[in-house]
Amino acid sequence: MASPEFDIAVIGAGAGGLVVASGGARVGAKIALIEKHKLGGDCLWHGCVPSKTLLKCARVAHTMRHADHWALAPVDPRPDLAHVMEHVERVVDSVAAPETAERFRAMGVDVIHGDGHFTSPETFDVDGRTITARHFVIATGSRPAVPPIAGLAYVPYLTHETVFALREAVAHLVIVGAGPVGTEMAQAFRRLGSAVTVVDMANRILPREDPDVAGVVQRQLESEGVRYWLGISVGGVKQGDLRAGRIRMTLRASNGAVEQVAASHLMIAAGRVPNIEGLGLEAAGVQVENGRIVCDETLHTTNPAIHVIGDVAGGHPFTHVAEHHAGIILRQTLFRVRWAKPSTVVPWCTYTDPELARVGLSETDARTHGIEHRVYTYPFADIHRARIEGEPEGFAKLVTDPRGHLLGASIVGAHAGELIAECVLAAAHGMKAEDIVGTIHPYPTRSQITRRAANQRRRESLTASSRARIQRLFGLRGA
Fold it and tell me: Over the Cα atoms of the chain, what is R_g?
């Protein structure tokens, strides 16, 4: 066949797709960027940006109510959800402003709006236009999973794609799912004045995290009035009358007990599924198993000319992972670094108050997989900056191997998402707890918590016998 028209054709203009398109164009590659909706992707329009804006509004309202904690007069902010959501929309629009087709066309990217599919292993059709490229990158992201709950198809429900369109008051929100999205939205709506109930089959919230770490977040939300039904399944939902609540949900406990919950609104936050339907993957020679594209550790599919990045690659569905994948693909496709593959050291954060951030192995992971390890913790209550600002909740936990190399870290507390970065660097470069201890951290900052946690390892090595040896060797006179 004739020489391909493009060096790379990117399918999907979310965070990862935009990085591939802009990065490729800047080094002189001819790029096609194909998107059937708006540039920016789920994180910009429905995920990270609006949710964190909503959480900030909710935190301000919470702080105003509890201003007496800082010797100021408390104020009832009386949130108006319509006004709050309009603010969220304005912030999203401001962040989205640079992400225009015109900007990318000015870089030299051929931006193509339309719905497309593969017609062969080498061709992709967009509304009748045939696209050929040396490499294709599937960056179509994911969408909220909808569990098979009886009656769900007949009642109105929200997901993270629709919740920010709310302009009506929410008297009582029931959230199905106690993962990061459900937990963040539970705290946001509760602080904005809604009654909130969270339901999950798991017996605790944020089940990917260590119980003691997730427990800090759960206790905080419970103290604010969030109600939990955990270790329980949803038997079905149906519409109720306006007085009792327009959503009625049946809950079934493991012992067979049945409970009824009535609410004004229902939100589903039960995971995500990749957007791969209608792409013509069979025609492209791309294998799919259990609803997911089969790919190797270098992000190649079963068609060597087709790559996947972000949520469709499986693994961690985070914007920062999609952007990292984009850099890997650019190195592979344009600079022929065939062996380049994504890092396995991936941080994440749940942006509740307090935040919960993690990278690498948790203590539970290490125990489950029989990995020899050591655990070192330090509380925020003993960090002066945390006490100064009245936020002493939480702690840092470091997991090391027996020689002190950092295997993972969890931080639960104010600004944990920022504080985890030092641990990401240490874990990614095989550093030891001693390396953190030997690094000067400014005082008074919360960043001292990782140093203090790492210092627990040094103190552990100072046994009575080693102390006695030091005294003899250096002639010390202490008791």
Answer: 25
Closest CA to 359 of 426, 415, 458: 426
Q: What is the mean pLDDT of residues 44-53?
A: 96
The residue among 118, 143, 475, 101 whose CA lies nearest residue 311 is 143
* Range(s) of the domain holding residue 385: 354-464
CA torsion, ordered 14, 20, 23, 26, to nearest 10 deg: -100
SS3 assignment, position 158 = strand
pTM, full prediction: 0.95
> For 83-120, what is each residue's pLDDT tens digit?
999 999 999 999 999 999 999 999 999 999 999 999 99
Which tokens sit at 456? 């627990």
- Cα 427 to Cα 2, 178, 359, 477, distances in angstroms: 47, 28, 8, 40
pLDDT of 1 > 60? The answer is no
**How far, in Å, CA of 87 to CA of 149, rounded?**
33
Give the domain-ending residue among 306, 334, 362: 334
In a domain, 339, yes or no: no
> What does each C-alpha distance from 347 to 184, 196, 324, 416 come to in angstroms?
18, 29, 12, 11
393 lies in the same domain as 325: no
Rounded to whole angstroms, how far apart are CA atoms 361 and 364? 8
Q: Token digits for 409? A: 């870290």
Alpha carbon separation from 405 to 269, 395, 454, 461 (Å, rounded): 36, 20, 11, 15
Q: Beta strand 123-126 with 116-120: parallel, antiparallel or unpaired?
A: antiparallel
Same domain, 172 and 205: yes
- Which residues make beta-bridge pairs with 237? 249
Q: How many domains does the chain have?
A: 3
Say yes or no: 247 and 170 in one domain: yes
Q: What pairing do the DSSP bridges indicate for beta strands 227-230 and 406-413?
A: unpaired
Element (H, E) at 8: strand 6-11
Q: What is the pLDDT of residue 199?
A: 97
The separation between CA 99 and the C-alpha centre of its own chain, rounded to angstroms, equals 21
